[in-house]
Amino acid sequence: MQNKRILFINFGGLGDEILFLPAIISVKKEFPASEITLALEKRSSSITSLTNVIDNTLYADIKGKNKYFELLKLLFKIWNGKYDIVISSGSNKFISIFLFLTFIKQKYGYNTGKLSQILLTKAVDLNKNQYAALMYHDLVEPLTTIKTELPILSIQKKPIIPNSVLIHPGVSKLSIQKGMIKTIPDKEWAKVIEGLAEKGKQVFLLGGPEDKNCIETIQKLVSPDKYENMFGKTKNLVELAELISSAEIFLCSDSAPLHIAAALGVKTYAIFGSTDDKKLIPQNGTVTPIKAKDCTCPLMPCLWERRQTTCDELSCLNITPEQIVNTLTNL
């Protein structure tokens, strides 16, 4: 089998990188002797700890003030890499020009118009109305008939803890920085923990450094005998993923741990408000979205495609702790 040097480009958060994995995995299966490089943002670098299919990484800070300079530096790195194939997930019209400037022989990206059809080896139609992992996988269908529908993570699963509910209430650091409200308030999470404990569930509370304020609020409101606080006890993403694998039920917000749980096949319930659950969870019954019952907002779901900031009303997050507890316990 020819040893190909293959470059994937996917800028986004950790969740995006997890959802992008099936495309990489299918290509690796098609070309098992290939060397895979992923170009991504530094904030998502921990993806390499969850998979063994990425050999090398290139980084570019495209969210910063100097994004064009960052892209130029990335271009120089790509020239030095002497790649045979490049696959990019970007849907901006500029992407096809960037890929053309890499001078890589085979170039694959989304169809953004006539220019992409001229400059790319194959301009793939972009279908956003599907699970994001499948949307990304469309990019590699010109290269392989192998279909990997779910991310595959290279971790050791732990034995399932009976009657357990693992809760990860937080959202991404970028969402916090931009004021994107994608989950219920901290005090409501505290009531969820109390409700589940009263129903006899063994509750574990998880979180990363960006969830510190949320965890501290819960600690102030909930008696420590009602849950086991695992905040700060998982030292890295692999340990977090291993802990999630031990859950009988996983409860979370729309965030990267959701995609970890879905990849591991853990029974998951996720809070969804302004984002589109149909695009972010696999339609295989493993993940159940919890949404406001009586939301009449005509824009829902709106975040990212219809608006870039959180609205003031947030009727899409009128989800009560009682609704969440009942959903998890009346199975």
What's the gist of this structure?
The chain has 331 residues and is α/β, with parallel strands linked by helices. It has twelve helices and twelve strands. The chain folds into two domains: 5-140, Rossmann fold; 164-329, Rossmann fold, CATH 3.40.50.2000.
CATH topology descriptor of the largest domain: Rossmann fold
| Shape by Cα distribution | globular
**In what range is the share of β-strand residues?**
15-25%
Structural class by sheet pairing and helices: alpha/beta
Contiguous low-pLDDT stretches (5 residues minimum) are none
Q: What is the count of distinct domains?
A: 2
What is the radius of gyration? 21 Å
Proper CATH architecture of the largest domain: 3-Layer(aba) Sandwich
Helix content: 25-40%
Major sheet: 6 strands, parallel
Strand order of the largest sheet: 3-2-1-4-5-6
Count of alpha/pi helices: 12
Q: Could you tell me the mean pLDDT?
A: 92
The ordered string of helix (H) and strand (E) elements is EHEEHEHEHEHEHHEHEHEHEHEH
- CATH H-level superfamily title of the largest domain: Glycogen Phosphorylase B
Separation, N- and C-terminal Cα atoms: 50 Å
Question: How many runs of DSSP E, i.e. beta strands?
Answer: 12
Plain-language structure description:
The strands form two sheets. Strands 3-2-1-4-5-6 form a six-stranded parallel beta sheet, sandwiched between helices. It has a six-stranded parallel beta sheet with strand order 9-8-7-10-11-12, sandwiched between helices. The radius of gyration is 21 Å and the shape is globular. With 331 residues, the protein is of the alpha/beta class. The chain has helices spanning 14-30, 67-81, 94-101, 114-119, 132-137, 173-177, 186-198, 212-221, 237-245, 256-264, 277-280, 321-329, and strands at 5-9, 35-40, 56-59, 85-88, 106-110, 122-124, 164-168, 202-205, 228-229, 249-253, 268-271, 287-290. 42% of the residues are buried. Helices cover 34% and strands 15% of the residues. The protein has two domains: 5-140, Glycogen Phosphorylase B (Rossmann fold), CATH 3.40.50; 164-329, Glycogen Phosphorylase B (Rossmann fold). The chain is built from twelve helices and twelve strands. The termini are far apart.
